[in-house]
Every structure is written in structure tokens, then in C-alpha cells.
Amino acid sequence: MSDYVLKWVDISGSAKIKLVQAGCTLILIKIGLAILPFSTFRKVFHWMSKSDAKPDLNSKEISEVVWAVNTAANIIPLELLCLPRALAAKYLLRKVPSLSLEIGVEVNHAKPFEAHAWIQKGDEIIIGDWSNSVSYQRLWVWE
């Protein structure tokens, strides 16, 4: 049996559901980013992400969604870097108030331009964190 099948058998039912949801969300976001002009994608994403905020999820539930997004992104044979992952997490956590999608550029004049996207709640980075040796300058907040 492959490692994926063995791992699939070992995870809980709720984790399987979150993993499938994350995978489907990532694929739809990847397709949307590929075929739609960015301004149109942004409007569609905003419309789909509308939600009446409900009570906050606890940190364990948020961590499970982040795990599902990162795991699905690593399994799906598409290039799913920081932006699709951040968008998927933002969509799947749309009922969590005060999450912001941040987009920034690396502050390092010795390296070529590099952008990055991450999700933040308050001062905490939910998905898309980076090592201490890298610094990003926030350019845009997508609320």
C-alpha cells in the first residue's frame, strides 16, 4: 500500500472531510486564478467568501484547517504556492472574524523580487509563515 493510503486510513473522519474540502477549494482557486482576470477572480472570491461571522473557532480547529490546506497542497500535483493556500485557508475559515490575507514582498536587495501571501489573525500568522532570516514588507491587505 502506498504511504498516502496508509496515512488516509490513520486520520479521523473529520480530518478526511477537511482534507477533501481543502483539496477541492485549492483546485477551484487554482482554476479561478488561471482563467479569470484577477479583478474578476477577486470579486467572485469576495462574493463566495461572504459570511455572517459566527463565534470564533478555537485554535485547534483553525490548525486543523491549515493542516488540511497544506497537506492537500502538497499532495495535489499542481503548483499550489502561498497565494492559493492563503486563499483556500481564508475561504475555509471565512466564518472566523478578523482574518486578513496579507501580500508582501521580501526585503532583501541582494535577491530578486519575491512576493508572498499569508493569512493573519491579529499579530499571529495562521498560514504562510516564514523563517526569521527572511523579512517581508506588507504591501496589501485583502480583507
Automatic annotation (TrEMBL):
Q: What Pfam families does the record tag this protein with?
A: Transglut_core3
Q: Which residue ranges traverse the bilayer?
A: 20-41
Q: Which UniProt keywords apply?
A: Membrane, Transmembrane, Transmembrane helix
What sequence ranges are listed for the domain Microcin J25-processing protein McjB C-terminal? 36-140
Q: Would you tell me the protein name for this molecule?
A: Lasso peptide biosynthesis B2 protein
In which organism is this protein found?
A: Dyadobacter subterraneus
